[in-house]
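TASK: fixed-backbone design
INPUT:
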């Protein structure tokens, strides 16, 4: 559905690349996560794919269409929800969506239905100028579904939203995926990525360091631990021991045979830990 090969981009038109030799493919119906710290090149890559930035070097195809020849057909089939909302403050929520829907030459969704989906029904007929930051973000998210996009570009769709709204947004993304929508999601949030993405790419300094499913990355790079709580006399003690380190394994046997175990459970490495292991720094 999306294919990118050897993509480079320089804002200064020199060798100072914001994106360097980036290649990946996204299949139909897949949720693909682009994970990286601020300034890694995530937005730059997305902007090239949606035609907001020119393709300088490399190749890109969206729905088998060459992005060099970015056309109206491409605009009609994608949905874009980016972090900085560009919304008409003097128009209501419904009016903003209705206005936006005029730009497409494909059937569009009922604005009110979309606003209801994201919990904005009560604000639907109020001016967007009075919306909070989170409401504007939901409005942009709703707007990005107006043309029933086949391919959906989401940039930090849940950042700054409360847990309830986050869960609603995640539910909508999963539902759309089940209906066959392909999702290209960029985020700093490892939990969202772990929960939603079929595959993720780790990107830093414009380069991709790993691409795989969260599960495979964990199997490949993750170390499992066992978390043991045991009693020594009246004191409850706790140890976290590696399941791969020989000394730790011996210690696990020792604790099992010589102490009274209260609780014992395995602890899988998180995607965040894997990121630090591969990239060498935290995702911030
Ligand atoms: N319009 C611009 N002009 C010049 N440099 C830019 C421009 N936009 C981005 N950059 C630079 O390109 C690099 C990649 O930025 P990009 O916005 O793609 O990163 P990002 O991973 O999306 O970051 P964030 O998570 O903060 O949005 C950074 O070094 C950034 O400073």
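OUTPUT:
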């Amino acid at each position: 559905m999306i294919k990118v090969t050897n993509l480079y981009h320089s804002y200064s038109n020199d060798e100072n690349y914001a994106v360097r030799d980036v290649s990946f493919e996204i299949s139909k119906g897949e949720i693909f996560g682009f994970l990286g710290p601020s300034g890694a090149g995530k937005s730059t890559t997305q902007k090239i794919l949606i035609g907001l930035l020119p393709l300088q070097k490399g190749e890109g195809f969206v729905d088998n269409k060459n992005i060099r020849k970015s056309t109206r057909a491409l605009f009609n089939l994608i949905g874009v929800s980016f972090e900085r909302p560009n919304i008409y403050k003097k128009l209501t929520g419904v009016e903003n969506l209705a206005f936006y829907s005029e730009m497409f030459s494909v059937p569009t969704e009922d604005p009110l239905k979309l606003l209801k989906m994201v919990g904005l029904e009560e604000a639907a007929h109020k001016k967007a100028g009075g919306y909070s930051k989170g409401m504007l973000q939901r409005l942009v998210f709703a707007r990005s579904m107006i043309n029933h996009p086949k391919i959906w570009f989401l940039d930090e769709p849940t950042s700054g939203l409360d847990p309830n709204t986050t869960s609603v947004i995640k539910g909508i993304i999963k539902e759309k995926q089940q209906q066959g929508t392909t999702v290209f999601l960029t985020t700093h949030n490892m939990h969202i990525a772990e929960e939603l993405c079929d595959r993720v790419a780790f990107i830093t300094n414009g380069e991709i360091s790993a691409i795989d499913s969260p599960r495979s990355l964990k199997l490949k790079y993750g170390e499992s631990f066992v978390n043991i709580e045991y009693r020594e006399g009246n004191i409850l003690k706790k140890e976290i021991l590696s399941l791969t380190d020989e000394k730790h394994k011996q210690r696990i046997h020792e604790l099992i045979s010589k102490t009274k175990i209260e609780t014992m459970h395995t602890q899988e490495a998180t995607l965040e830990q894997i990121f630090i292991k591969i990239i060498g720094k935290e995702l911030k």
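COMMENT: DSSP finds ten helices and 13 strands in the chain.
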